[in-house]
Amino acid sequence: MAEDRAGTFLKMIRHSERGRLKIYLGYGAGVGKTYQMLLEGHRLKDEGIDVVVGLVETHGRKETAALVEGLEGVPRRKQEYRGVVLEEMDLDAVLVRKPTVALIDELAHTNVPGGLNAKRYQDVQDILDAGIHVISTLNIQHLESLYDTVERALHVKIRERIPDTVLAEADQIVNVDLATEDLRKRLAEGKIYPPDRIGTALGNFFTESNLENLRELALRELASHIDLKRRETAEPETGASPDQVMVALSSRGPNSEMLLRYASRLAGRLNRNWYAVYVQTPSEAPTVIDSHTQRILSGTLTLAKQLGAMVFTYKGEDVVETLLRFAKEYRAGTLVVGSPTIRPWWKRLLGERSAVERLIHAPSGLTIVVLDTQPRTQEPARPESRAVPEAVADKSAGEPAGIQNAGPRLGDLLTFRRIVTWNQPVQKELVLRMLVDAAASDGQAGDPAPILRNVLEREEQGSTFFNEGVAFPHARLESLASAVVAIGLTHAGISDVTTEKPIEIVFLILTPFADPAIQVKLLGLLSRAARNRDLMRRMQAGRSPEEVLSAILDWETANAAG
Prior knowledge:
With 562 residues, this protein is of the alpha/beta class. The protein has helices at 2-14, 33-46, 62-68, 91-97, 120-129, 147-154, 164-168, 180-188, 195-203, 208-234, 256-270, 291-306, 319-329, 345-349, 355-361, 428-439, 448-461, 516-530, 533-541, 545-561, and strands at 21-26, 51-55, 72-73, 77-81, 84-88, 101-104, 133-139, 156-157, 172-175, 244-249, 274-280, 310-315, 332-338, 367-371, 382-383, 419-422, 470-471, 474-477, 484-490, 505-512.
């Protein structure tokens, strides 16, 4: 079976011009992920494939170390940190060497501060962007969306986590499984950790119940991934159905991260898009809330994007009405909310209802999922055990589901005249004005003046200019017969928009009012495009509309071929 899977990956890399990612997935240290990765490295080398070891951690395991022999290795980069010299993978050296396949262990590893990337998975993404195929390893505990699940089950906080999209975008996943009793036996025999760490590991992380929980998570994750890939390739386009998932966020709500992780996994199971929506009432305007609350909110919105959500901030006097209006326009069928705070008895006596109660009783047709997010006193979770260097984690929705191999193609909606670039700082309204003019340049969209008013009104309701370097202004128009997209590249940034990462690419999306499904599809498609690092870099480097459009067409062609 392992040889068959290796053969499949061999065919895949021989017919690909872009880097492919294969992950050996396990539920704990010692199940054999690195061992299997190295075995495949030798099989590929025997087939004449240029394979190098980018980085492998043997953890002193003799059988693993023996398999490193006979494979070319890229020398590690040494870096001093707090007076200690540490070794990391040398990203630049791997890129210069440019093998066909690089073996890179422990995908969730955190790099020593001071390098180009904070995480090893980001190094891997750069290597894939360079056209180099990667085989890596990952423990299921490191997925972001599983953080709360693992903490509840194991009472362990996982420090090293990766976005679920990393696993969702893998071209191949192989589950390396081992019966829990066999894994504990391997540990007791000293095949995983040295003798002085065996007792602590067996009594803490490596208990039978912990391992069974993690093993189940790994098997479920693999089944979910297989089902997602099957639906992506097998299901014909049937049109967007109103069952997208949305989660309501609050600047002061407890456990917003738990809400996001739950919504992420729910959307993944339903194979649907999902949205994270924060309603900014007048009492929560940036000039009103304190800096601490602003930092918490910023972190929450950043996590939502990492988990694969389309993030929206909407202005509204009434949170419930705004959420319901959003759900109707974006065809959401499920709304995830946190449990309401307990209200004083006299307010309940007067009939005052919480926002959650109003949502539940509103005739909206929504399925309301109320997650218990109230803080509670419980046994404190332990940090990751130092006796177990391979930590613990979570998974989420990944790619916008149901859109990747169906629906509109970005290249079909663009022309050179609909791509605008600015080399000097530019103001937001001018960006929108020029993009509207570009969208209407061929007469298809109609008069630019009412279009611009519509777009500006939408931005006033809730700005899209905060999504970590990319903005998605959009509007639905009565006069439009078919969708139109225009793209703006701001090489020097937008002068009157303050974000942690400067806005570099603006996608203007105009869709017919009579066809709400196409807006949902385009937002999903462009969200996916914005998460592709290679595409974003090529677009940002493009100095002409021709170069930008060429990058988009190459990306769509590669996706269609893959």
